[in-house]
Amino acid sequence: MPDLTASLLPELLSFRHLDLDLGPGAVHPNYTGRSLLNLPASLDRWLGLEPGPHAPLDLPGLNSLASGAQQVVVCLVDALPFARFNAWLHDPGAALQPYLPDALLAPLTSVVPSTTSAALTTVWTGRSPAEHGVLGYELLLREYGMVVNMITLAPAAFEAQRGLLERAGVRAPSLLPVSTLGTRLARGGVEPHAFIGNALRGSGLSRMHYADTELHGFGSPADLWQSVRQLVERPPQGRRFVWAYYSGVDALAHIYGPGSELVRVEFDFFLRALSDLFLQPLSHGPSRDVLLLVLSDHGQVATTPQPHFHLGQHPGLSRRLHLRPTGEARLPYLHLRPDQAEAAEEYIERTWPGAFTIVDSAHALGSGLFGPGKPCDQAAGRLGDRILISRGSNYLWWADKPDALLGRHGSLTEEEMIVPFLALRL
Fold first, then answer.
1. Is residue 296 part of a domain?
2. What is the pLDDT of residue 70?
3. Which is nearest to 369 in space by CA: 9, 22, 133?
4. Tens of pLDDT, residues 67-98
5. What residue spans of 78-189 are helical by DSSP H?
6. Count of domains observed in the chain
């Protein structure tokens, strides 16, 4: 197997591109060819489309492996750090071991923030978070005068009631200032499909992404891979793109922690279904000329609830804010009252020494932390005035719900930022 880990991982961990102090141990996103931002340009190339504005993936041997594929299947497993993926992939008896000699394995960086809404939108637009504006889980949308959950497209205070913005007349695709992959593929004569778990199939984020894409639901890994195989076995009219998004690992890692044995069992179960119901039948049947990619959007770090980081216990900080923080618990955006920046920074550094790196939001955006390209008009307002980059397992909590998560993401640690990329030609 062309395993690029030994050469690329040290390079990614030492990469410095930004004019920013992101704190000790922070991983800088490598938007120049080794991040999720670069995947869409490669997909354009392999599927015969005009390339997008950003560089394609720079991975030795990848283009040769992908050249001429008639069908590209991209499977994204949510919240899977590279280190765990790599270790589990090589366990004795692991389901994919028979295929590894012919596969390409590499680490990539996620985007900033290292969270699903930002990363998936990058893959489905080919644009950086700065350009597409989906900069976190909860964002202040000034144009609508509210803080919105970007997964459910509901006001953050009513996040369980998904789609409230759409019921008020806001069309989900209109929230993106850039075009999406499905539309570009369909116009280019490529057949686009997306497989999404039934519980997420109608989410606001899905409706933002999957215009002009044939959407399929599934209930389990077995259902997913049986359905994907049946689609791939059907000869395409031209080229075909198949997207498969699996959230089971992420859901369990949030609840039980990313190092939980249950998370590992879930991933093993997923890989077994991939092998038994997709790879083995295709390997023994007629050649379908398929490129399979397995990757992740971000990782997770293990955390424990820490009441000391609950904003409600810190009125000295709250009174310096226009509103509660937005973004991610591990990458909060602070919207400050006038002339309160110095006082807020002093409070944070005194109360939580070493827990956060404080960055000026405008400087972070201008320096390219959220990616290259011209930031969309809404980006600056959504980032507020200051960004807190969490170090270690720290976070800031402001939600009116129990703080019980044992796994979180959004910041710039290696566990959150370094993600796997596996390519296999069938």
1. yes
2. 95
3. 22
4. 999 999 999 999 999 999 999 999 988 999 99
5. 82-89, 116-125, 129-132, 164-167, 181-187
6. 2
